[in-house]
Amino acid sequence: MRDSTPTDGFTVTGTPATALVLASPHSGRAYPPAFLAQTRLRVDQLRRAEDAFVDTLVGAAPDRGVPLVAAHYGRAWLDLNRSADELDPSMFDAPPPPHPDQHGDRVRVGLGILPRIAAHGLDIYTGPLSLAHARARISAVHTPYHATLAALLDAAHARHGYAVLIDCHSMPTPLPGRHGTPQIVLGDLHGRSAAPALVAAIAEHFTSAGLRVVANDPYAGGYTTAAHGAPATGTHAVQIEIDRALYMDTARLRPNAGFAKITALMTGLIDRLLVELPRLGLEAALRDAAE
Fold first, then answer.
1. Domains in the chain, please, with CATH?
2. Integer Cα distance of 185 and 198 in angstroms
């Protein structure tokens, strides 16, 4: 059943019926007029920060009883895969209260919860922002987005004894590493956000399709996997990064000839997980923890 519930900042599509939840935090493509008045960039430049079309790649999920939570606004406006405290003090008319998250590598390079730069290192804003407005933006969208994910996972856990979040992203073609050039990167925070059996099942799905799969390099996961992945209590979160060149023309921001193939591959992953999840012992850690 497909039941779409819009909010101002994201959409929840699908009636929950399984242990699986999907999220697409960076595929939003809307930009509020007030933001466009603040930025020095064109919309096409802002859009290069998006994980364009990822919500479409996994669009079959709701018809399978798997809720899909997808961003409405572009990542350049608000990054839903960051902590609410990953604020760059240099961006605001009054600095926020000090917090350790302000000193992380992502904030330092301009990629905090309110990004300072878009793709290719382009400065987004023409001047300092109001801290009060930034807080309001976070409260209006970021807070309810993660509360919604938590509620869906809690409901899935109550029904099945475990829950699985797949956080769906795309990436620029990475530079070659020690494992070659990956086409799929799976992030589980080096084993802290998901059971190894789950990550292995996802990896095998992609490798059997002939794709190069790497774990945690160069993307180990972000705020979403850290905030929602707790395998010891039976809730698992895995981040999937897909090389954009597999499915889109990255220069024109349009689907390419591989779009249908990758869509079918992601649909196949959903179908495979719905069959295999009950066999992976994902609730076992919960039983062990209680003993």
1. 4-290 (3.40.630.40)
2. 14
